[in-house]
Specification:
By secondary structure, this protein is an alpha/beta fold. It contains 22 helices and 17 strands. Bound molecules: zinc ion (2 copies). Pfam families: tRNA-synt_1f (PF01921). Its main location: cytoplasm.
Length: 549
């Protein structure tokens, strides 16, 4: 092995490339790999897949696209590490329609009894798929399909069952002394009795660590089904004494990961910081010095947070891809992952309008419709934009997201389109597909407003004037305000003027705001009125304040 060791924190950092994926692609090409180049990601299908898992798919996707663009054939493989053991019962599960449910709604007792077994040997708690593992792998597959990323899913359990791991398992066991020696540099619990194989008990089906003897000539591992420490709990073994073949169990993760690299011929794999500190250094060493294979080009990505908090299935701070796509176009979601993977970022549903605004700018920079801030912004848009859309189409139409949210306050599709046209957000000559695409964003922005109960989560009474009586002073104040709005002012100015007008006419400020909410929403409350009015079409607001229409 003559390859230099790559630092996963450095790969992809080169400042010579505008897009990080190109700098990773450079590192992959420097290895002179044979086509097809293989890019891998993977997770245990342990519970509700969320957007954090998408780092494993999207980071690989952009590198795959960069390499494809350079003429390479690329396979993007995603392993469901589904032979892993269920270590604890998750608090939340999701059915195949993404309904997240608590344990009370499934047979949680069955899950508890199955602790310690591989995910693929546990019944699907929803009863719709072959196993627990298959169920959550299906959700991951569905997520990738929704985003429109073509990933080849591979089941680890199937690789074992098909004998794909057998040769490398034998090699690890033949070299058990070296395996122990290498691993002991990274893990404390590795002593001379350590065996790098986890048999599956033929009696109870649990994965056990109580290996008593390895007979490689016979291809057998003898074991006692012993207790297993899993985090802060103990999974009890059944005490059975049995014999496993080399396919009747699995390699420990620290060996399994490098073994996957060998079996699948992996050239590049991105991973999170947990692996960067843990199984990457040992895996890289094991690949070179136990398996005699080259490890792939590595890259660390930063975890992102959700609303400023760590994503966590167990605490419920998660958002699924399905939920994200109710409020964002897939291309906007993909765009999120074009950003530098080394920077910690927050995904905020509450502020998703800013992400969409960034994307819209990225798109206009690509089409040369606005001046880029600098050469880097231009180069990044030129390179990455074609990878986030199916096909760049210059005559696409985007309604600004918060304006789309305003349009979402009315249910009438015709009215939405009328206002958007009147406000100049849909050009007269826009083709029908572009108009449809633009208006589809209104529905997403509407979902966003509902989900966050934000200032757009109101129903604008657009079609007819709500029934309302005002005293003379209030009526005069409304007329004044209408004149002010007709002059054309921004939201802040209108907000200030609402206070001033009320004062001038000796109308209680609270009651004056209530009059506005009555006229617009037939309600006593609503969004911050000045900025909101500024976002509506002026004609409508002026007429409404004058109680004319
Ligand atoms: Zn299922
Ligand atoms: Zn057992």
């Amino acid at each position: 092995m003559t390859e230099t060791v790559l630092d996963p924190y450095e790969v992809g950092r080169s400042s010579e490339r505008a897009f990080w994926a190109d700098s990773v692609a450079d590192a992959v090409e420097a290895r002179d790999p044979e086509d097809p180049i293989v890019i891998k990601g993977g997770v245990s299908p342990s519970g509700v897949p969320h957007i954090g898992h998408f780092n494993e798919i999207m980071r690989g996707y952009f590198v795959a696209e960069a390499l494809r663009d350079r003429g390479h054939e690329v396979r993007q493989v995603f392993t469901a590490d589904d032979k892993d053991r269920l270590r604890k019962v998750p608090r939340k599960l999701a059915d195949l329609d993404w309904n997240v449910v608590g344990l009370g709604e499934v047979d949680a007792g069955a899950l508890g009894r199955n602790l310690g077994k591989p995910y693929t040997d546990i019944p699907d708690p929803f009863g719709c798929c072959e196993s627990y593992g298959a169920h959550f792998t299906n959700l991951l597959k569905k997520s990738a399909e929704l985003v429109g990323v073509d990933v080849e899913f591979v089941s680890n359990t199937e690789l074992y069952a098909d004998g794909e791991f057998e040769a490398v398992t034998r090699r690890v066991l033949e070299r058990a002394d070296r395996a122990r020696e290498v691993l002991s540099e990274y893990q404390n619990k590795v002593d001379e009795d350590y065996v790098p194989f986890v048999p599956q008990c033929e009696a109870c089906g649990k994965l056990t660590e109580g290996v008593t003897e390895v007979d490689l000539d016979a291809g057998e591992v003898h074991y006692v089904c012993a207790d297993v420490e899993a985090g802060d709990q103990t999974i009890e073994g059944c005490g059975h004494e049995g014999v496993a073949g080399l396919r009747d169990g699995k390699l420990p993760w620290r060996f399994e990961w490098p073994a996957q690299w060998e079996i699948l011929g992996v050239d590049f794999e991105p991973f999170g910081k947990d692996h960067a500190e843990g199984s990457w250094p040992s895996g890289e060493d094991i690949a070179r010095n136990v398996l005699d294979v080259d490890p792939p080009v590595p890259m660390v990505y930063e975890w992102f947070t959700l609303e400023g908090e760590p994503l966590s299935s167990s605490s419920g701070n998660v958002v699924t891809v399905d939920e994200v796509l109710e409020i964002l176009e897939p291309e906007v979601f993909k765009y999120f992952f074009t950003k530098n993977p080394r920077k910690q970022r927050d995904f905020s549903v509450a502020n998703v309008d800013r992400l969409v605004d960034d994307f819209d700018r990225f798109e206009t920079v690509y089409f040369g419709e606005v001046d880029p801030r600098d050469e880097t912004e231009k180069a990044l848009a030129e390179r990455a934009y074609p990878m986030v859309v199916d096909e760049p189409r210059e005559d696409r139409v985007r309604i600004p997201y918060t304006f789309a949210a305003v349009l979402g306050m009315t249910d009438d599709p015709g009215l939405r389109e009328d206002i958007a046209r009147k406000e100049g957000h849909i050009p007269d000559d826009a083709p029908e597909w572009a108009v449809d695409g633009a208006l589809a964003r209104v529905e997403r922005a509407r979902n966003w407003a509902r989900r966050t109960s934000n200032e757009f989560d109101y129903e604008l009474k657009r079609a007819e004037l709500p029934d309302a009586e005002f005293d003379d002073a209030t009526a005069a104040a409304l007329d004044d305000l209408a004149d002010f709005v007709a002059e054309g002012h921004d939201g802040e100015a209108i907000q200030g003027e609402i206070y001033e007008t009320a004062k001038r006419h000796d109308v209680d400020v609270g009651e004056f705001f209530a009059a506005g909410y009555r006229l617009l929403f037939d309600d006593t409350e609503g969004p911050q009125l000045g900025p909101f009015i500024a976002k509506l079409d002026r004609d409508f607001v002026v007429k409404r304040l004058r109680r004319e229409a």
